[in-house]
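Thread: sanity check for a docking pose with fe (ii) ion

Original post by kr_44:
Hi all, I'm comparing my docking run against an independent structure prediction. Below are the sequence and the ligand SMILES. Could someone generate the full complex and paste the structure tokens? I mainly care about where the ligand ends up relative to the chain.
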Amino acid sequence: MDENCYEERKPLIFAVDDDEINLLLISRILGEFTEVRTAQSGTEALNYLAENSVDLVLMDYNMPGRDGLETLKYMKHSRAEMKNVPVIILTGDTDLDLETEVFRSGAVDFIRKPFVPMAMQERVRRVLQNEYLKRNLRREVDRQTKLAREQAAATARLFDETVLALAETVDAKDPYTKGHSLRVAEYSKHIAALAGRTSRQQYDVYCMGLLHDVGKIGIPDEIINKPARLNDEEYGIIKSHTTIGASILKKIVDFPQLTLGAHSHHERYDGKGYPQGLKGTDIPTEARIIAVADAYDAMTSCRSYRGIMEQSRVRYEIERGIGKQFDPVFAAIMLQLIDEDKDFQMRGQLTENEA
Ligand SMILES: [Fe+2]
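Reply from moderator J.T.:
Ran it for you. Here is the predicted complex with fe (ii) ion included:
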């Protein structure tokens, strides 16, 4: 074994024995590949270890005062760094029970006196090597964990940015809906938070809100931007943005629930919506949240066919839609938000952010 393979520097050994001759012997046996410091009692050893870090402790079992086993137990129950320092117990005792107790108390090895120099060197090398590998493994695990976390964060960021870019692409098709998807996403997240949903659920509904109208990518611009009333055929085409959106988002297989908002945000609580005519709680929760947020934003935004509605009128329309167009719980939260928004800041702030 390469004697220096475990560390760049010489390992620091701390030898504890009340017999000075033994300490001298240990220094001589291990001195060629380690640096040896010494102490002559358990108490002296603990004082030293409280202040200094060492790579390995060699400790005599039989010492006056605090013996080796007691010192070892103290070290292993300590909260300080000394807890992790490997300890080899030295003894001339032949008691087999003692050997068991020494290992149970946390020692890594056991060396009998009189010392056999080569055997002692090999045992010390082996312990140092193991410690070095353990430390390296820990370092490597930490490094890989940090790397994995950074990569996951970068992927999440990339996903968020892509979703946002996609949402802006949709909104760009209609000059009247600039920022609509982002606002719907923010309102939806806010409603979900007030409804006691977890932060993961809030994030999900936020993403679904951002992409709820993604299917409009597949609708011709002249229909989306038609200033006059849509005929039945055109209205049918507009309605298909829900199913088109769902089939686009189905491609994101790692986030299957993303389709829910796009597919079902035009369902109505009374079952008169589209595309499936789902009713009540058969409509996915996220879609029921987005439906209220979507309606609020549509009413508080300028459209080609009308200006911005009065806040009181918006409130009235949402209240009127409870149990018909809207889920009563989420509509009530929207009303609460409107009532708290005395200066009509909710829409304003988001418009500024998106500008
Ligand atoms: Fe829509």
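The radius of gyration is 36 Å. Hope that helps with the comparison, let us know if your pose agrees.
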